[in-house]
């Protein structure tokens, strides 16, 4: 084996600067944390409400991403739909559009002023904005692309001949999917869902724009953090630590997928 | 099914890109037909059409009187065809154990789990890998995986078997073993078997009939003896125009069924098949001297010009085909009925257990 090339000083400095960019905020958060009142800050009623709401909406969003995203990933990976590049661009849009724009778009499409929103109101007396359902919808909007991308990639990596053999063994399409395709892409389904869930958990812009900031109904953890920081920075930082801890756990859970050198 | 062997009838036309495939062939129950041809000849397309993963453009595919594909009216999907497939690189399901792989077909048909597993265990036993039942495919060697793949195909109780280059992914040593076992299992299989290969040795050792496919067309077909002794084109001659000898080995000597003694380099025991490339057969007017350990006196039955070579067939019991240059043929001046000495080096002869 050849010795690794020694990097130049300039390169090391630049790399260290990047490391600092990631590490310093983390250290700052830990350093500013008010550890003595941490338990109280986290168990206050508003904090617990936000935490409960965040867990519920993000889990619901992850489940929706799974339910809606799996068929879509299948269509993108396995069928010859005419406008596939366009379709994929559409799926990726929520990843690149600023969430606040996404929220505005949702509001324009489903808010009380819109035809669909008006119809929902007239027919069922439902007004989405301000409800937990709206928070779920906003989170699903931003999170699903992560799931679709992950699963589409996994489906493409499955050798279709495995499915052909399964069919020649007498398995119908549903059986082939359930007993061959699904188990073979299962690790990606899990990591895609975890990724979507993490994204949903952190969602701020689309939620605050579309669902609003109603305590106990749409005020998820990120919204609570933002609000608390203005009144009581210590409590805001405590809530931030919760989100940070969750992210670390997610990263640890997906380490085989992302932390491994390719 | 065993009582009434079914026949596979294929008469199809498929156009895909540059390939224009037009093949008609019939495989009787209990027999093996090898489709032999170079890469790109249309073998995979033929296979996909028969398994139902590709719809044919015109023609008819039928198995035991049941029409599987006859555009535009009939198309039976792969899962309804009852055609077992043994693919080249085994394609076992990586998330299932060997036993679960074999139990897949019965399970898919709704056989209760316990019964399916018992049947799978029996099949693994039959192909000689019962001890590996709980292993995942990743832990199996190529030869073991290919045996499991055969058991998996048989577990579906297929009416016909399709083998797609079943030995191509194996190393030379494993190939001999798996080939011998495969031969035994195919002999016991009551339905028609279609074997697709680019390896003449596989075709010669496993099949009863040969179909030579070139550029989407059948260029020759017939029994092994017909095709090997009378290749109709230079290409077929190169591909399969080899001498095939049936005999019984005892050490390095093989006694052929025609009563000839053939000396080979690698000792073997029991029933064997040996191939002798026609180009390795030298002809002499005088008894040859020197190194060749095999020499027989025969009678010229046929002299045939094929491209830039001359094929000389000797009458039984020698029954070999020699391929010599036109210059050598002119010098020997062979006529039908002439006596001639044939010699072959032991190292030129490839012998395989039957």
Short description:
The complex is a heterodimer of chains A (262) and B (354). Chain A has 262 residues and is mainly alpha-helical.
Most extensive chain-chain interface? A-B, 19 and 27 residues
The CATH architecture name of the largest domain in chain B reads 3-Layer(aba) Sandwich
User: What is the average of the pLDDT values of chain B?
Assistant: 88
Number of domains of chain B: 2
Shape of chain A: globular
CATH class of the largest domain in chain B: Alpha Beta
CATH-derived topology of the largest domain in chain B: Rossmann fold
Q: In which order are the strands of the major sheet of chain B placed?
A: 7-8-9-3-10-11
Rg of chain A, rounded, reads 22 Å
Highlighted features:
heterodimer; A: 262 residues; mainly alpha; MetI-like fold; 13 helices; 79% helix; globular; B: 354 residues; alpha+beta; Rossmann fold; OB fold (Dihydrolipoamide Acetyltransferase, E2P); 2 domains; six-stranded mixed beta sheet; five-stranded antiparallel beta sheet
Structure description:
The complex is a heterodimer of chains A (262) and B (354). Chain A has 262 residues and is an all-alpha fold. Chain A has a single domain, classed as Orthogonal Bundle (MetI-like fold), CATH 1.10.3720. Helix content of chain A is 79%, strand content 0%. Chain A is built from 13 helices and no strands. The longest helix of chain A is centred in the N-terminal third of the chain and has 34 residues, at 45-78. Chain B is built from nine helices and 19 strands. The two termini of chain B are 27 Å apart. Chain B has two domains: 8-240, Rossmann fold, CATH 3.40.50.300; 243-353, RNA polymerase II/Efflux pump adaptor protein, barrel-sandwich hybrid domain (OB fold (Dihydrolipoamide Acetyltransferase, E2P), Beta Barrel). Chain B is globular. In chain B, helix 2 (98-108) runs parallel beside helix 4. Chain B has 354 residues and is an alpha+beta fold. The A-B interface holds A 159, 161-162, 164-173, 175, 179-180, 183-184, 186 and B 51-53, 77-85, 87, 91, 93-96, 104-105, 107-109, 152-153, 155-156.
């Amino acid at each position: 084996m050849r010795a690794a090339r020694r990097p130049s000083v300039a390169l090391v400095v630049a790399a260290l600067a990047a490391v600092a960019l990631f590490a310093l905020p983390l250290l700052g958060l830990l350093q500013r944390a008010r550890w003595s009142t941490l338990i109280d800050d986290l168990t206050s009623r508003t904090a617990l409400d936000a935490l409960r709401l965040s867990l519920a909406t993000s889990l619901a969003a992850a489940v929706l991403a799974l339910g809606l995203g799996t068929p879509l990933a299948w269509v993108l990976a396995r069928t010859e739909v005419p406008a596939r590049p366009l379709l994929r661009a559409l799926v990726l849009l929520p990843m690149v559009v600023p969430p606040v724009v996404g929220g505005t778009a949702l509001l324009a499409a489903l808010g009380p002023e819109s035809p669909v929103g008006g119809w929902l109101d007239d027919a069922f007396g439902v007004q989405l904005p301000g409800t937990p359902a709206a928070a779920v919808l906003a989170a699903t909007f931003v999170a699903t692309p992560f799931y679709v991308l992950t699963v589409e990639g996994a489906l493409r990596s499955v050798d279709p001949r495995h499915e052909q053999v399964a069919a020649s063994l007498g398995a119908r399409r549903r059986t082939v999917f359930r007993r061959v395709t699904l188990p073979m892409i299962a690790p990606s389904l899990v990591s895609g869902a975890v990724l979507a869930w993490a994204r949903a958990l952190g969602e701020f812009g689309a939620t605050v724009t579309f669902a609003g900031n109603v305590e106990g109904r749409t005020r998820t953890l990120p919204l609570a953090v933002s609000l608390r920081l203005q009144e009581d920075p210590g409590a805001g930082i405590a809530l931030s630590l919760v989100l940070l801890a969750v992210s670390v756990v997610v990263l640890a859970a997906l380490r085989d997928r992302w932390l491994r050198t390719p | 099914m065993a009582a009434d062997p079914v026949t596979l009838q294929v008469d199809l036309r498929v156009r895909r890109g540059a390939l224009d495939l037009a093949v008609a062939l019939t495989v009787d129950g209990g027999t093996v037909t090898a489709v032999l041809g170079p890469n790109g000849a249309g073998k995979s397309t033929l296979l996909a059409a028969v398994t139902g993963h590709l719809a044919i453009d015109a023609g008819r595919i039928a198995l035991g009187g049941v029409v599987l594909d006859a555009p535009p009216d009939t198309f039976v999907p792969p899962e309804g065809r009852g055609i077992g497939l043994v693919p080249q690189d085994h394609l076992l399901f990586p998330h299932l154990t060997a036993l679960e792989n074999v139990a897949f077909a019965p399970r898919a048909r709704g056989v209760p789990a316990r019964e399916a597993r018992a049947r799978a265990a029996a099949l693994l036993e039959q192909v000689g890998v019962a001890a590996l039942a709980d292993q995942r495919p990743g832990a199996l060697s190529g030869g073991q995986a290919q045996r499991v793949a055969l058991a998996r195909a048989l577990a579906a109780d297929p009416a016909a078997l399709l083998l797609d280059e079943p030995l191509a992914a194996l190393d030379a040593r494993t190939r001999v073993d798996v080939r011998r076992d495969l031969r035994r299992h195919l002999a016991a299989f009551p339905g028609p078997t279609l074997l697709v290969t680019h390896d003449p040795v596989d075709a010669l050792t496993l099949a009863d009939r040969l179909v030579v496919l070139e550029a989407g067309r059948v260029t020759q077909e017939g029994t092994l003896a017909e095709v090997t002794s009378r290749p109709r084109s230079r290409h077929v001659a190169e591909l399969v125009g080899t001498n095939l000898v049936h005999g019984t080995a005892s050490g390095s000597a093989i006694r052929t069924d025609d009563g000839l003694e053939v000396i080979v380099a690698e000792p073997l025991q029991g029933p064997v098949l040996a191939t002798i490339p026609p180009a390795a057969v030298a002809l002499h007017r005088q008894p040859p001297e020197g190194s060749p350990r095999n020499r027989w006196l025969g009678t010229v039955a046929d002299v045939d010009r094929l491209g830039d070579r001359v094929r000389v067939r000797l009458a039984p019991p020698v029954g070999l085909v020699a391929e010599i240059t036109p210059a050598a043929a002119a010098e020997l001046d062979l006529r039908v009925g002439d006596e001639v000495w044939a010699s072959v080096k032991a190292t030129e002869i490839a012998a395989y257990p039957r």
